[in-house]
Amino acid sequence: MVGRRRLVAAAAVLACVATLAWVSNTAEQDTGAYDRRTPSHPVHYGRAQLNNGRDLMQRHTDIAPEVVVQRFEPVTLKLQLPGELAHDPVLRNKDEMFRLYGFNLSASNVLPLDRPLPDYRLDECQALAFEHQHRWPKVSVVIVVYDEPLSTLLRNVVAVINRSPPELLGEVLIVNDKSTLPELSLLGEHLRRLPATPPVHLIERTTHRGIVAARLDGARAAQHDVLVFLDAHSEVCPGWLEPLLDRIEDNPKRVVVPQIRGLDLNTLALLPGDLWPPSKGSFNWRLSFVIIEALLDQDVVGTDHKRGSPIRSPVMPGGIFAMRRNWFFELGAYDPELLYYGAEHIELSFRTWMCGGEIEWVPCSNVAHIYRNFNRFAVDGQLRNVDIRSILDRNDKRVAEVWMDE
């Protein structure tokens, strides 16, 4: 039986390698990135560079120093909008505001960018003592932006800086996927008011191709060993980073997902609630992501079934996760032929566990998220003449044809 399992595992890895090669060879190049860190030199990141650039796989190891650095003063930042934006009539029309943004932007604009959040971690999570924290690498946090209002985006950035151990946060990269929202023209001047450490970089794309192309730009530009992808309308909670890095240190081929807590759409208050029994990710025959109840005897890591124990999951939601940068590229990164939104999280999940990795949800790490209530495609003016339904169907079909048996 053991010999048969090894043969099956070996066959799966060989199939994974062959599939990754096929995906790489069939993908078109995307050269829509411009990196503001070097304004005189546009940076073009394409699939050919990914395949041929061995530096992407052989980066220096960048371990945080053993000496713990304390940040004595939290970062503060104030939203500064000109009158025509601060008093936009849309902000007084709830129906129109929710149609365009999916949440109460008026409330967000008056909330402090450095507001505190309640700590809803379990007692056992707050009491965790990590043995190998001095060996953890630094992280590059990648945030993709498309027409995200300044207040939610900047609150996200400030929370990352203030709630991450400074010795572990290497940089924040914001990738603007050719937004058209007027207030985002003020993003650069707000970012310049932040401290120089940690560095916050802005990458401007010249074409609008969605989450996959933009995240690839961020991952390629990242300078540190662990990638953390955050949705633009997220807000990390106290103690969010350490539990993720602890699980990655335990297995460098592990992709980890924090416990994602909702923010109230009207008040943006962090929603409390018991997260037990635990859940995990799955998918239906339409390849849509669904959440199902986890099995205590199979999915919860360890034998004591503590509420803070990590949970094995075959699929991740995709908006918020962390993994080793070299493992991301060893897997082939994202398939750049998946356009705009959808299917990329299912595809990366398939790549992970079919190529020898694993996915875990980590309840001791909490990240808040605005589950926006609107049709994102209907308000995307750049998709007005695009048959988005056909593109999304094509994404799902491509994932199924590449990774699933007949």
Overview of the structural elements:
The protein has 406 residues and is α/β, with parallel strands linked by helices. It has 13 helices and twelve strands. It has a six-stranded mixed sheet with strand order 1-4-3-2-5-11, with helices on both faces. Strand 8 (279-283) and strand 9 (289-293) form a beta hairpin. The longest helix is centred in the N-terminal third of the chain and has 25 residues, at 2-26.
Give the % helix. Answer: 25-40%
Q: Numbering strands along the chain, what is their spatial order in the largest sheet?
A: 1-4-3-2-5-11
Shape, per Cα inertia axes: globular
- Span between N and C termini? 26 Å
Any key phrases for this structure?
alpha/beta; 406 residues; six-stranded mixed β-sheet; globular; 31% helix; disordered N terminus
